[in-house]
Amino acid sequence: MNQSLLEKSDITRPDITVNARDVFGINFDLDVPAFSQKSDYVPELDKNYFFDEKVTKAILAGFAFNRRVLLQGLHGTGKSTHIEQVAARLNWPCIRINLDSHISRIDLIGKDAIILQEGKQVTKFQEGMLPFALQNPIALCFDEYDAGRPDVMFVIQRILEQEGKLTLLDQGRVLTPHPFFRLFGTANTVGLGDTTGLYHGTQQINQGQMDRWNIVARLHYMLPEREAAIINAKVTDIDKEVVHQMVAMAGLTRQAFANGDISILMSPRTVLSWADNIKIFGDVEESFMMSFLNKADESEYEILGEFYQRCFAKDLNAKD
User: Fold this and answer.
1) DSSP 37
2) 92 exposed, middle or buried (CB, 10 Å; 0-12, 13-18, 19+)?
3) b/e code 258-269 from CB counts within 10 Å (16+ = b)
């Protein structure tokens, strides 16, 4: 793994502290270690980002006290972006790995590869992302943690301990974590499998492994007023009353989903896509169909049409 992206900064550990209350606007008096210089692995800063107080406390505890933190919540609640935006304000290098079914043990650990060296073909071990992150001051985030393959999950289990060392059997090496290596995860379930049918591919997680996560925090959808404010900040030139109606529509789908009346819901990400599409197509109803309705089963059009009529005082022509 090429480490050049970290070599731009000669700071190998946090050299300043920031106050959680001052930087994140939450009621939490904690001085958190941070970096004075930014490397290329630091996420881009979103100045309009809204931090959920309880979840942000959990993430900051992970950074400050080297706790393993797992965030659980429905899609679009902002689990991964919460971690990234905390890292962005700490100038802490952060890498996200999506544990889809194609990620294997070799992808994480590394493998032997044939390379040209001084004009000759030689076999050389190329480290994967896990050894690289483990040996650097990096916050490693495993997205879709509950979708990982069993062989991958047991590799991760080795490093869930705070001082967890990683053994590279093929290399006869034991890697000690960097003092400021941090580990986070995000999941749609809490390791008990998918009971809703919404998240195909997720699975039950070994409870011995779940027990190794020091902190588990749940992230819910934000209040309508806050969601509308974020949409207005990110997508300008849309009538605020329309945004209010859009957020209300999203809220109805979430409640109906929770009641088992429909099989999909509108996440804040979907509402943002809807707003973006309004700017492209210039029509609220057409953009709604492209952003959300066309993803639904036709048997659910009637109830979604009722929601649309309730929010926009207009019948939805879903047959077009």
Assistant:
1) S
2) buried
3) eeeebebbbbbe
Angle between helices 224-234 and 240-258 (to 10 degrees): 130
> How confident is the model over 135-173, as pLDDT tens digits?
999 999 999 888 777 778 888 887 887 677 887 766 668
Ramachandran angles phi, psi of 252, nearest 5°: -65, -40
Q: How far is CA 256 from CA 260, 265, 307, in A?
A: 6, 8, 10
User: Is residue 42 helix, strand or coil?
Assistant: coil
Q: What is the pLDDT of residue 190?
A: 58
| pLDDT single digits (tens) 230-275 | 999 999 889 999 999 999 999 999 999 888 899 889 999 999 999 9
CA distance 256 to 8: 50
Strand partners, 31: 19
The predicted-structure confidence for 71-113, as pLDDT tens digits, reads as follows 998 877 889 999 999 999 999 999 999 987 778 888 888 876 7
What average pLDDT is seen over the chain?
A: 86
Q: Are 148 and 201 in contact (CB under 8 A)?
A: no
**Residue in 162, 32, 28 with CA at minimum distance from that of residue 91:** 32
Phi/psi for 48 (5° steps) reads: -95, 10
Q: Among all chains, which residue has been given the structure tokens 């004009």?
A: 119
CA distances to 56, 221, 264 from 76, rounded to whole Å, are 16, 8, 12
Secondary structure percentages of the chain, helix, strand, coil, to 5: 40, 20, 40
Q: How far is CA 26 from CA 4, 30, 58, 76, 320, in A?
A: 35, 10, 12, 22, 47
E-state strands within the chain = 16-19, 31-34, 69-72, 94-98, 110-117, 120-127, 139-143, 166-168, 173-175, 182-187, 215-218
CA distances from 6 to 10, 137, 201 (A): 8, 9, 34
